[in-house]
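Dear colleague,

Following up on Tuesday's group meeting, I ran the structure prediction for the two-component complex that the binding team flagged. I've pasted the input sequences exactly as they went in, so you can double-check that nothing got truncated or mislabelled along the way. The structure tokens for the whole assembly follow below. Feel free to forward this to whoever is handling the docking comparison.

Inputs:
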Amino acid sequence: MSSTTEHQKAGSGAPMETSASHENLVERVKAMQSVWILGVLVVIIAVFGVLAPTTFLTPGNITNIAQNVSIWAVLAVGMTFVIITSGIDLSIGSVLVVSSVVAAQVMERMGDQGWGTALVGLVLSVVVGIFWGCLNGFLVAKANVPPLIVTLGTLSVALGVAQILTGGLDVRSAPAVLQDNIGYGRLAGVPVITIVALVIVVLGGILLHKTRFGRYTYAIGSNETSARRVGINVDRKLVQIYGFTGLLAGIAGILSLAQYGTTTIAGQSLTNLNVIAAVVIGGTSIFGGQGSMFGSMVGLFIPAVLQSGFVIIGVSPYWQTVAVGSILITAVYVDQQRRSTASGGRR
Amino acid sequence: MRSSTFRIAAAGIGSVMALAACSTGAPTADSSSSGAAGGSNNKTIAFVQGVAGDEFYITMKCGIEAKAKELGYTVTTQGPQKFDPTLQKPIVDSVTASKPAALLVAPTDVEAMQAPLEQAAAAGIKVVLVDTTVNDPSFAVSQISSDNIGGGKAAFEAIKKAKPNGGKVLVISVDPGISTTDARVKGFEDAAKADGTYQYLGVQYSHNDPATAANLVSAALQKDPDIVGIFATNLFAAEGSATGVRQAGAKDVTIVGFDAGPNQIKALKDGTVQALVAQQPAVIGSDGVEQANNALTGAPVEKKIQTGFTIITKDNLDAEGGQAAYKSTC
């Protein structure tokens, strides 16, 4: 309990810090976790660049890394919103699976391999995603069940529904147009799936940083009671935010179908934790009220680059998880220190 | 205050990187030599496991390393944390970028790993599929796996030997869509259905989790207390099945496991599992290296090799059965 109040104190000091250092842009930039963590990413890339100069920094490997984080990037956009409200969403991997299952089953029945089928699949996948997201949001906002519990529950329920719908058998029939054009297509050498993800990330960033919806998201995370007092309809906003995360999980479901050509029911089991780790490494505070889309994207690339680099220089796979975990803890530790310093010099 | 924070953080990140650097000692040398050599002098083989830390793949790695040493190759081994194509694909992509001469890989999904492995082959890497396969393996120079349908039949024969009077038999598998375990199930199912004295109860999926397998088996024994035999199609399914039988308090159930890791061998010694169908992962590995070498040197390559099985029971544990057991270290 006492630790919670401490964190809240630290959290409430944060906006003060931003406004206080407003006149000094350099200070402000230096204070941003995302800038600091970008430095870490650059160092990691440089180290691997030196260790494996002919293989790591090749266009082929860089596009591979970008392609492999694309689906996580779409999910991380929603997760950034949710974590800024001091919530969490553990269910995204399962929602992704159930969305792709519904879409794949209907597309399979339609039998056609064209764009029309793919579009129906996309719409269905998104609708299913929004449903699960809104269910999460409703239970968090109206039923007052903690987000950790709600989404832990929907994680199982959504996966169970996917298994019931399919009998546990992966549906392996994504329309060819989807796989050829989105999953493995290239546009000027850049994977199409990465371009799709980038567009979503940019739109998500604008929504978070430049609109009233985004400001309310920060307000709810900084102090929910104050947000209510100034007249923000917090409950409705929470349902919208979790619904938005579900929508993105639905899009990710279609992208996953496009990339893997199968519904990966047994897979995606670590997706939620990987995305949460990325968002937190990127400087979004688990206590809410702070974070940036840019940071989440940098946070996403650190584990991906580490894994790719470690594979290329031939480090045992066990060290990869050790490294990512260490960076996660270090990032949050630095964030905490920085904030308690900002909130009045308490070490 | 801030500077000290940064110092500590820098130390943290620094130690992670140092860790990376120190544990790479030898492999760094490998990769730089391969980078320098390139082209035909490239003597590196990459091995991507289905999952890291599984004795089956460790034994395969031992076979690969032994054969590679003999033929003058260096081997780097990687594997995902779980048997999951979404985790294996990034690893395969990175291996492709590192341009080994050959890639020995156990694909985790017949569809999802198709395109990433085609890409590896298109990059000029000789791809050898070991243990599992994909929908269209035409890009691979060779496929080496156990005859899994035969393995399933062998498992049924082992149950038949222990329970000659017939009865209900159940299969605990991993997940649908894995070519090897699906084939084992099929082999068992065909053999069980062909024999009128046995009633085939179908297959349950443990999702490669011993706890799930245990729950499935104890629940199945609640429903059908007269089950005489269980065929567990992989390591974790067998471990879980043994636990499930013990949990349910059932005594007279013959469990036939597939694979022969240290835990199964112990379970066999303890009498919780009555027979094991052991594959020959070391042979799969060394055959894989041999075919990759043939492909690289222009010698004739065998497109498809099927390796055999050893049935291990308590009786032959000291002889050929013991030698067929899997290793946890080379």
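Residues 115-141 of chain A form the longest helix (27 residues).

Cheers,
M.
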